[in-house]
């Protein structure tokens, strides 16, 4: 490790990123700790990083405030560019939000402190332009944490040439509408970012404007209202805090707080306000029977407040339902008699922090999914999902789902498609009869199946691709015309107490780095190979039975890895090639 940078003695590495490293150092003259940021020589960021360091040094050198990190030195030693600054031991606000500690009230106080520092910078002609939780360091000694603002590397200073006007710089999710439209950011743009941070603190890490990719997020910031917070996000928080947040998130910068100090003062007053008694959940009844208050689910959704329960009476509702706030759709009676269907496109789209759907039949009418889950966490319970011309359920990147006692059947395009980085859990569900895969897990998806049945699919019963992980306990993968399970391109499957039987192609196929771990599992009576391992496939088995498969139980093709076979396995007809 480097021993010195400039005049500073290096104690240890604090962190490493794409641009370089951050070290804990010591000033030998003043005998005080310092944080030393560096740019790693030879990286693609070297030129950009040096320019950002210079901007940060110039901006922060003009600021002396208890809630702004103090700059000590900037220079270059043997082609290593460095920036030495005050060492403030603690965690950034982003980490604390994800950790859920300390309390939300304390995190909001930390944000108020950062806004005090932000206002000081604004008064001196400096706009931060990248105000976000990762750039707020919370630490210090004593009972009261101290927040300090850092990283002015994309700041604009008195509209000087330090940054090019008309060019976006910063982090997309925190950019104000006027900044997106013009590329010019004033103090009001930083105040908008503070409103985004309040939403994050209250929600535990969600953001008010979301979408699949930067373009969708920009469109939401420009044209959509912020997402509603769920009732449990507001538990123990005065409603006045939400009013402060909404004011900061106004599309019109003139409607926001006049200064960042004003926002900090309003936020502290709001935190000190008395708690209001929670409203009872709103209940709306949809249908033609007695007691109904709406004929249409869509009308009920327009009337519903966040947290509402919409009770749906038996009938066929031919409408595309879009849920954009937290609520519950509750069928009243037999799910087969309560049908939501669309002529084309999804009959249910969810773009809300949380949604619960119980006792409904969801029937899609187009080539796309019957249920399209775009964000948040959706729970399906005792639901029937069917879409003869299309797909049953689709989770978009980052969404979460829980299915309990549901049936997904008769889909031309597959029962369930789990997009990149999604998380889902299905308990006691059936995935039956599709023209493709029963469960398709894409890049980085994490799926748990417990006591589920996956049968009669034209392709694979379960397909894990591109680093996806599917964990199955007590499941039956049976009667699929294609593969029972397939793990390719780094996908993984873990089976415990499962049965893989009667499939037309190999019960388990591992290819191109696919991996499987089986314990107490039966792979039996298949019309093809029981388990087939190809390029760089990895297999581990313990107390498993592989029997009655034609032409054999286990195929280890050239290029597959040596399997790890534990105790208690019975494998008939292994084939090595």
Describe the structure.
The chain is α/β, with parallel strands linked by helices and 577 residues long. Helix content is 18%, strand content 36%. The strands form 5 sheets. It has a 23-stranded parallel β-sheet that branches. Strands 14-17-19-21-24-27-30-33-36-39-42-45 form a 12-stranded parallel β-sheet, with no helix packed on it. A hairpin with a 2-residue loop joins β1 (4-5) and β2 (8-16). α3 runs antiparallel to α5 (187-203) and α3 (104-123) packs antiparallel against α8 (260-272). The longest helix has 20 residues, at 104-123. It is flat and about 80 Å long.
Query: Structural class from helices and strands?
Result: alpha/beta
CATH-defined architecture of the largest domain = Orthogonal Bundle
Helix content: 10-25%
Any idea how many domains? Answer: 3
* Unreliable segments of 5+ consecutive residues: 157-167
Strand content: 35-45%
CATH fold node name of the largest domain: Transferase(Phosphotransferase), domain 1
Indicate the mean pLDDT.
Answer: 88
CATH homologous superfamily caption of the largest domain: Transferase(Phosphotransferase) domain 1
Radius of gyration: 28 Å
Can you identify the CATH class of the largest domain? Mainly Alpha
Number of helices: 9
What is the strand tally? Answer: 46
What does the main sheet amount to?
Answer: 23 strands, parallel
Distance N to C terminus: 48 Å
Morphology: flat
Keywords: ATP-binding, Kinase, Nucleotide-binding, Transferase
Domain Protein kinase: 8-271
Organism: Mesoterricola silvestris
Pfam family, one: Pkinase
